[in-house]
Every structure is written in C-alpha cells, then in structure tokens.
Amino acid sequence: MRIGVLGGTFDPIHMAHLIVAEEVRSRLELEEVVFVPTGEPWMKAGTPLSSSHHRLNMVRLAVSSNPFFRVSSVEIDRPGPSYTLDTLEALLAEYGEGVEIFFILGVDALTEFHRWKEPERILELAKLAVVSRPGFKGGDLSPKGNLVEGASDRIVKLDGTNIEISAGEIRRRVAEGRSIRYRVCDEVADYIMHHGLYRDGSK
Length: 203
Fold this sequence. Notes:
Strand order of the largest sheet: 3-2-1-4-5-6
Distance between the termini: 37 Å
Structural class: alpha/beta
C-alpha cells in the first residue's frame, strides 16, 4: 500500500493544500493521503495557533468529500512537541507491514530538513514527495548543506504545484471582512464564520 502524509498547522486548511494532495496522490498513484494537523509545532514555538479542536474540525470538513483522503489526529492526541519522526512511526504501526509512505512537503521546508528530529531515520521510514512552492525554485536536491546523506535517493520532486494561497492571507482577509470564497472550501468558510475565527486578527 502506498500512502501520502501531509502535515501542517492547517490554520486554516485551504484549497492549495487540497489541490497539492490530490496532485501528489494522482501522480504517485497513492491509495490514500493522510492529513495530519500539527499538535505543537516545535519549529514554530511561540507562534499563536487556533485551538487544535477547530483546526482538526476544519480539516475533517475539507477532506470529507474525497474518498482517498483521511485525517489523523495522532499529533494532536500526543502530548508535547510534534515531530515528524514520531508521527511516521505511529502511522507505520497503524498500517502495518507493506505500507510505503511518501511524506509531502514544500521545497521551502526542505531547506530546513537537516534541523528536523533524526532526519536520517525519517528517510528510512518514508520517501519525501517535494512539491514546488511560489517563490522557491528548488535548486539542487543533491545531499549538501540542507540535506543529509542519502537524501537525494529518497526524494521525489513534483513540479507544477505552485498555488499562491496562504493561511496567513486567509486570516488577514477574514479580519478585514473580505471574501475568502474559492480560497477555502465552502464548508470551511462556513465553519470560520460560524465560530468567529480570525475576526480580530488573532487566532
């Protein structure tokens, strides 16, 4: 079984997340893409986030219409900082032997990969499906500087996934009373409005 794993704060989840996940699923012929909302993102320590309850609910609403998408609350349920390594180990234990994992991340995040918890071990557990991002050319993906030994053999580069939508932009638009239609799915837009999220410019 081949699955993709897409993690993030999803504050809120938006159309670019969904489009990228579906593009990776299709191109890599994945049987499933698992969305994993971050519990406590250690690389963004001190950054205010909406409650995990709201972020998880929005992800569930956003993916509900796609039979190939599912949501895991493994990072939210686990106390302490959220590390990709721990999440991959938990998912491998859940799916059992025979599963092949592609961890989906933007090429911008790849530049910080060497700072992640045990990057070499991550590469043993999963391949990296690296998607292009607006403003980042990607450059050389050979192991040097920001990568670790053997990384290039475990990377699948997927160009053509540039979509200029950001969660920060969506939060600003809500705070300014501007439309977020077509930036998030209707269910998420309704949820944000119903719960009054982002209206004061905070989480």
